[in-house]
């Protein structure tokens, strides 16, 4: 459908018309979501070139296109180029929108994630602290974006070896999610999964098993027994199995055969 729209717009409006470029950008993002990252990269590079030519290098739509391209490059593990693009987007958004605009904070988040991928955990922590502080101030402590920042910061602490602080932050986010959305919500499940992984890293294997069972139960209700994410859950189970011993491992595998979860 998007492909037909692109052809129609190109024919009637020209390839450099905003509608034509916008349709291409949507196609690039769809390809990314489908896991077709090589095709997404080619499409979004073309979109960025068109945006820059038509609108200039600092136009918000140009920066959106560059940001989308950087996300795809992360998936392709082209971290250095993605980092350069993300830094450029952040700098220009700070200049045009201000340091605490939602789009600027989204750029802070993206750059923090890149630093984590590169193993620059202190830099990632600093950026996540910045995003969390601004979101708490402007959105409140229980806004979904604030809770995502809490989770991102928790993962930074975990990467730095401070799993106790990570657990505390994850539990804060989980408590807020349950209060707002209930036990059976995808965001709640995500935070439960983070806690399960953190408990394993703390070598609290019994608690990790309990959280696993809880995660499994909720995931099964949300996604069903055959959801692809169950494969990720089974992979994650390996660590828990090693901690609780072979006897428990057999029981966990049996339970995992009918469960579902989200990626941790």
Automatic annotation (TrEMBL):
A cellular-component GO term for this protein: cytoplasm
UniProt-annotated location(s): Cytoplasm, Cytoskeleton
Keywords: Coiled coil, Cytoplasm, Cytoskeleton, Microtubule, Motor protein, Repeat, TPR repeat
The keyword Transcription regulation appears for this protein: no
Pfam families: TPR_12, TPR_8
Molecular function terms, GO-annotated: kinesin binding
InterPro entries per record: Kinesin_light, TPR-like_helical_dom_sf, TPR_rpt
GO BP term, pick one: microtubule-based movement
Family designation: Belongs to the kinesin light chain family.
Entry protein name: Kif17 kinesin
